[in-house]
Amino acid sequence: MEAIGLSVVIACLDAEATLGAQLEALASQPCPVAWEVLVCDNGSTDGTVVLAESYRARLPLRVVDAAVRRGPGAARNVGVDVARGDWLAFCDADDVVAEDWLATMCTALERHAFVAGRFEGERLNSRRARRSRPLDQQDGLQSSAGSPPHAGAGNLGVHREVFRAVGGFDPAVTVLEDTDLCWRIQRTGVPLVYVPDLVVHVRLRATLGAMYRQGVAYGRAHAQLERRHAELMSGSSAASSPTSSLDPGDDPAAAPERSRGRLEGWVGSPPSMVRFVWQVGWRRGHRQGPDERPDPQAGTVAGRHRSNDDPE
Predict the structure, then answer these.
(1) What integer pLDDT is reported at residue 148 of this predicted model?
(2) Which of 154, 199, 263, 292 has a C-alpha 20 to 30 A away from that of 120?
(3) What is the pTM of this model?
């Protein structure tokens, strides 16, 4: 059996509409080492699995049943469990890797044990969608005040032994599980290195409902990470969201009169309204805190999630 150098792990759920573009991008580029693609299906009810299987002739691909537990992190862990590569690369089912992504990922992992690349938002999004929310990880790693840098799992590479040493993604963290992983790895002394030439084209959401729900989920997840990593986040403020472009002065609770005036001006500007709705959702989620109830779907077919950490 041929030794595998790189395992590309893709978590997906009901991704029939977008997965083909990602697999097409992978199929159209060379890889300098022996490699494989693991499509980790988290319980799809559409044609995701059939679509993935149709690429077997063009890709060294395996479809992995990852429906045992809800969440993208849990699904990726299942893929890593059967992966044969010494290097792991994570991308998402609704994004598209750049044409040299495989080669650049291999070069990066030759030099570093833990890497993240750049997110690009123009190719797959309308102008309105691009204006609807800030896109992190364009010029460097993501950061939250008082904590180490982190990166999205949609463009992440790591040596298998480093990933294994920390136990992989924590399935109890279903949103911002990539941030949690980044912090846990860095606590072992392994740095996260930003590679700007490692590019993934990402899709954004811009509807008010989707952005509000995403904001709530991110706010609750951030509260969860504050509890888990209190010593790392000692300088962070519960009054500011880590991924919103709004300034503290835009806080509707802190300055209601000013916010109402701005809200009136935003009525004719949907992108700004979406940003406002995301921020309101984040603050509500953060106040609620993490959901500590047992996961009723643990060990059963997974609940619906976006293939990365961008919940609807």
Answers:
(1) 85
(2) 263
(3) 0.77
Residue 154 and residue 191 share a domain: yes
The closest alpha carbon to 239, from 179, 283, 291, belongs to 283
Amino acid at 11: A
Q: Same domain, yes or no, for 81 and 146?
A: yes
Return the pLDDT at 247.
30
Predicted confidence at residue 293, as pLDDT, reads 43
Give the C-alpha separation, 180 to 178, whole Å. 5
Q: Per the structure block, which two tokens stand in for 238?
A: 């519960």
Enclosing domain of residue 97? 6-201
Which residue has 């949690």 as its token pair? 180
CATH of the domain at 132: 3.90.550.10
**How high is the pLDDT of residue 291?**
61
d(CA 2, CA 135): 39
The residue assigned the tokens 């993208």 is: 72
Tally the domains of the chain: 2
Structure tokens at 82: 């059967």
Partner residues linked to 40 by β-bridges: 11, 64
226 located within any domain? yes
Q: Is 242 a member of any domain?
A: yes
Reading the block at residue 260, the tokens are: 């109402």
Contacts of 184 (CB under 8 A, 6+ apart): 166, 167, 170
> Can you say whether the dihedral through the CA atoms of 271, 277, 278, 283 is positive or negative?
positive
Question: 95 with 152: CB under 8 angstroms?
Answer: no
Give, for 190, the enclosing helix (H) or strand (E). none
Task: Tell me how far apart the alpha carbons of residues 267 and 289 are, in angstroms, rounded to a whole number.
Answer: 30
Chunked in runs of 10, what are the mean pLDDT values of the chain (312 residues)? Answer: 92 97 98 98 97 98 96 97 98 97 98 98 86 82 82 97 97 88 95 98 75 66 66 47 33 33 35 64 69 40 36 36
Query: What tokens appear for 179 in the block?
Result: 């941030």
